[in-house]
Design a protein that fits this description.
Elements: H1 5-26, H2 31-48, H3 52-60, H4 64-74
Length: about 80
């Protein structure tokens, strides 16, 4: 399997360029700060995971603008 030229371009942008950008921003953080951040992110993710479906379900509900648009479409 091989990526097409378009696939290679997308890969470069979303993988290589993103990691390069991220590395530049995090370069000034100490190992201790990075480890603390990782622990906090992992903890938050663990707390959110059991209720993730609540937020997913909520996000899929039409908002006020969507509800108005649906009613207008029915008219």
């Amino acid at each position: 399997m091989q990526l097409t030229p378009s696939g290679n371009s997308i890969y470069k942008h979303y993988v290589y360029d993103f990691h390069h950008w991220l590395n530049e921003r995090l370069n000034g953080l100490s190992s201790e700060d990075m480890n603390t951040a990782i622990r906090v992110i992992d903890r938050v993710a663990a707390e959110i995971q059991p209720v993730k479906s609540i937020f997913t379900d909520f996000a899929e509900q039409p908002g006020p603008k969507d509800a108005t648009s649906s009613k207008e479409k029915e008219s």
